[in-house]
Design brief:
single chain; mainly alpha; 165 residues
Length: 165
């Protein structure tokens, strides 16, 4: 009888350790995604600034220094190139931000599910440590709560994924 309680206690401790490790991994993933997004946005903005600067330098500075008359067509083409670059960069930023929103929502949902599971596991561990007899109904109720939370979390993830298309 004592052996069973020890085994059950050690299994519950392992479950708690796994939940904590998963939470840490989730936090690390969120941090990495945020850093990647910031880097991508900064690189895109930098590229746009460089392209605009090069075009301005060629059209304005070089032409003025060489006293060359720049045709309107050249100016229009330069402006169109700048507009295309800005639009492409903006579209890329929007795509990256959508990906970030999906990742953050998924991570938050997973975290909420893990916290609820961890709380239920902790209650069971405390009950086992206090040598309280847990009725089957309580265990079934806890399992049902976890199942409902997982189903709702999955539905939230699906809605978010569909809304970002």
């Amino acid at each position: 009888m004592n052996k069973n309680r020890r085994m059950r206690g050690s299994m519950l401790v392992m479950v708690v350790v796994v939940v904590v490790v998963v939470l840490v991994v989730v936090v690390v993933v969120v941090v990495v995604v945020v850093v990647v997004v910031v880097v991508v946005v900064v690189v895109l903005v930098e590229e746009v600034v460089v392209i605009v600067a090069v075009i301005v330098e060629v059209v304005v500075v070089a032409a003025a220094a060489a006293k060359v008359v720049v045709h309107k067509v050249v100016v229009v083409i330069a402006v169109l190139i700048v507009e295309v670059v800005v639009v492409v960069a903006a579209a890329a930023v929007v795509v990256v931000l959508r990906i970030v929103v999906v990742v953050v929502v998924v991570v938050v949902v997973v975290e909420v599910v893990l916290v609820i599971v961890a709380v239920i596991v902790e209650v069971v561990v405390v009950a086992a440590a206090a040598k309280v007899v847990v009725h089957e109904e309580v265990v079934v109720g806890a399992v049902l709560i976890v199942e409902v939370v997982v189903v709702v979390a999955a539905a939230v993830v699906v809605v978010v994924l569909r809304s970002t298309k």
